[in-house]
Design goal:
Blueprint (H helix, E strand, L loop, with lengths): L1 E6 L13 H18 L4 H7 L1 E12 L8 E12 L4 E9 L5 E13 L10 H9 L2 E8 L16 H7 L3
Parallel strand pairs: 3-6
Antiparallel strand pairs: 1-3, 2-5, 3-4, 4-5
């Protein structure tokens, strides 16, 4: 399990004085960057390869509040991937300094070709590093169809009529 240690900063807080919802998502993303760098792959490397990660869905479950100045640890484990490794799931757990789990997040992601803007596979050396290490004990292979939540699809609106209705 990969662990990223951070300290809760003032700008990580919400109006209630505890770690904000948006901060959890940002810390999960920062942990994924730290993990990539621990494997020897930087932002510049990904730009040169013309491939990058894209978040398709993120979800966080909160168990306990965390406040300013607290040292926290964010874990990262590979929860699953498609056979072709285009799609992947990552689990993040948030721990206090005593190892108490105060939140858990999961992220569904994919790899995108930065030129064509289409989903793609990672180059082999990167894929080996990412997909052969740091698997969770409940790692599983899933299908592309498993990435969709039943019934959630885009629904466009007529902005011209909506804006007129609001008086804009």
């Amino acid at each position: 399990m990969f662990l990223n240690k951070v300290k809760v900063r003032w700008n990580d807080l919400d109006a209630n004085g505890h770690l904000a919802n948006a901060s959890y998502v940002a810390l999960m993303s920062a942990t994924r960057v730290e993990y990539a760098e621990s494997l020897g792959f930087t932002f510049i490397d990904f730009k040169k390869m013309m491939v990058g990660p894209v978040a398709l869905r993120e979800e966080v479950h909160y168990f306990k509040e965390v406040f300013l100045g607290a040292p926290i640890y964010i874990s990262q484990e590979l929860l699953g991937a498609t056979e072709d490794q285009v799609f992947y799931k990552i689990r993040h757990n948030f721990y206090d300094a005593e190892g108490n789990n105060f939140a858990r997040g999961e992220m569904l992601g994919a790899w995108i070709d930065l030129k064509s803007r289409k989903l793609t596979q990672l180059p082999e050396k990167v894929a080996t590093a990412f997909f052969e290490k740091n698997k969770s004990s409940d790692f599983h292979i899933f299908t592309k169809e498993d990435t969709r939540i039943e019934g959630i699809k885009p629904k466009n609106i007529d902005l011209v009529n909506k804006l007129d209705w609001f008086g804009n």
